[in-house]
Amino acid sequence: SSELTQDPAVSVALGQTVRITCQGESLRRYFASWYLQKPGQAPVLVIYAKDNRPSGIPDRFSGSSSGNTASLTITGAQAEDEGVYYCNSRDNSGNHQVVFGGGTKLTVV
Amino acid sequence: EVQLVESGGGLVQPGGSLRVSCAVSIFTFRTYEMNWVRQAPGKGLEWVSYISPSGSTIYYADSVKGRFTISRDNAKNSLYLQMNSLRDDDTAVYYCARGDDGDGSVSYYYDYWGQGTLVTVSS
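Output (structure tokens, whole complex):
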């Protein structure tokens, strides 16, 4: 099965811009989606199908993709954006296999 | 408000069985694909199983194939996961999640999640 690789931790100053990346061969064929998980809570979808924001997600969240890398950008990070961000995509092996990245812990300082 | 509520988690011995359930409200359950996703303590997310709206198509992660069975009851707006031959590494919070591929097959994402139910496999 495919793998998606994320940096374990990233920090950003309050109000600044941060990019979180996700790398994997499946991203050359499939779009990534992104989730934010806060401690003790279920994940929340923040970007789907590369660059679409669900209703209720602030427009400071955006997604993009190039080659084997998908990116989540937060423009003007807020304290409430802290948590672990996971990417996911379909897996190249088919049969509806789905793969998640290992997660990136974002700290807003 | 869309709600997914899991139940049935608990402590089970290695080799034992457990069935977890997910009750869904508000959205038209019978028209949506559903999934189980798990998270071991302190670890990341792992997709476990998928079921189509009618229940006719089912997939499993290799790690649970042959041991877990997903099912649904559209009349009861409920999703189930029967877990047999449980192992220590099945210990995790199990989330039910509604899945969608948008307007094509180039993506797959989970737009609604339950709060999860903890399954602990230990002697």
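Chain B touches chain A through 23 residues (CB under 8 Å).
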